[in-house]
Amino acid sequence: MKQNRLIYIVDDEADICTLVSEELERFGYETRICRTGAQAAQAIRQRRPDLCIIDLGLPDMDGMALVRQLGELQGIGIMILSGRDSTPDRVLGLELGADDYITKPFEPRELVARANSLLRRLEQIDAPAADSRPRRAAFGNWTFDPASLTLSNERGHSEVLSSAEAQLLNALLRAPRQILSREQLLGDRADPFDRSIDVRMSRIRKKIEADPKNPAIIKTIYGAGYMLMTEVSWQQG
To answer: What would the pLDDT profile of 129-150 be if each residue is shown by its tens digit?
Structure first.
């Protein structure tokens, strides 16, 4: 883990903020507490964090709105920490761009472990740009640039993926025509919420498939996982 990575804790409960902040700082993270969505938005404009941990019950706005705003930015991990434990809330949070969802009450050490895992996955997305491997992946009619999380096709249309979507697509691109299980795609994420893979896969398919309901590029292998059906060529950016 890199030291001094910056994590914003966005929650109006003072005790929760103190608990999370102290636990993260014990493991070498720098933290900043924001008690409202407006404070968080201002802080992000001043200095972008590596990760935001967001409560959905903020006093000035629904936390989902903040998740949506952050989901449009690149390079910021998003973790929801909320007392809302319904499946619709979980799915909506993931659809809006959250990378992980933890419900209250929670175990502080588990939260740190999941933050570690999330930040490692974001590092892996950036890894191709940091070494000698080619930077862009061409598959089918699409090109994916891991450095900018951008998909573009031959017609000039482009889509920017969330960090979670990019991590999932990058894993498939690194293993074309191979079945990857949910466990392989989730990596070492603690206590995986399987529905998150389905949600993200659906979002990727809507962007790259001619008919998302009958996908030809990414196939579901029932009972086993997913497979990228096209060849992939890696090119210098």
So the answer is: 444 555 789 999 999 998 888 9
Are 63 and 80 contacting, i.e. CB atoms less than 8 angstroms apart? yes
Q: Give Cβ neighbours of residue 62 (< 8 Å, ≥ 6 apart).
A: 56
**Whole-prediction pTM:** 0.66
201 in the same domain as 169:
yes
Torsion on CA atoms 148, 54, 69, 198, rounded to nearest 10 = 60
| H or E element, residue 74 | none
CB contact at 8 A, 226 and 218: yes
Residues in the chain: 237
Helix (H, G, I), strand (E, B) or coil at 103: strand
The phi-psi region of residue 4 (left if phi > 0; otherwise alpha if psi is between -120 and 50; otherwise beta) is left
Query: What residues make up the domain containing 153?
Result: 132-235
Pull the structure tokens for residue 114.
């999941």
Residue 1 covered by a domain: no
Among all chains, which residue has been given the structure tokens 């089918």?
Answer: 140
